[in-house]
Write a structure and sequence with these properties.
This protein has 135 residues and is α+β, with helices and mostly antiparallel strands. The chain has one domain: Hotdog Thioesterase (Thiol Ester Dehydrase, Chain A, Roll), CATH 3.10.129.10. The chain is 26% helix and 40% strand. It has three helices and five strands, in the order βααββββα. A five-stranded antiparallel beta sheet has the order 1-3-4-5-2. A hairpin with a 3-residue loop joins β3 and β4. The termini are close together.
Length: 135
Amino acid sequence: MKRFDWPVRVYYEDTDAGGVVYYANYLKFFERGRTEWLRHLGFGQQALMREAAIVFAVRHVDIDYLKPARFDDELRVETAIGASSKVSITFEQCLLRDDLVLSRASVKVVCLDKNTFRPAVIPAYIAEKIKDAQQ
């Protein structure tokens, strides 16, 4: 399983009154990792909507909070594909400070027709890149 890394920094707006990242904001960091992974493969979200008439939407998230991230931390989001099908991708993601794992998430996204929001088959040219990214 190949891994894609994306750096993130914790801003004041990401934290609670104690300077610890608010639990829901971990989802934002993981979203950035998946978005940049897709962009790294050559697929921007806007272009997919415009040219392929698809969007990817989160269907399920399983997340573990292991250690706190804090204001001004430099973090790294690791993103890898756990599984994929004709209409979905399950990402395995970690948020790290140096080599310390702060949080883990398994995130299933589904491909949807942008007009009907019904499940759609991931276009072959995208599925091929996903397959290559798994090896």
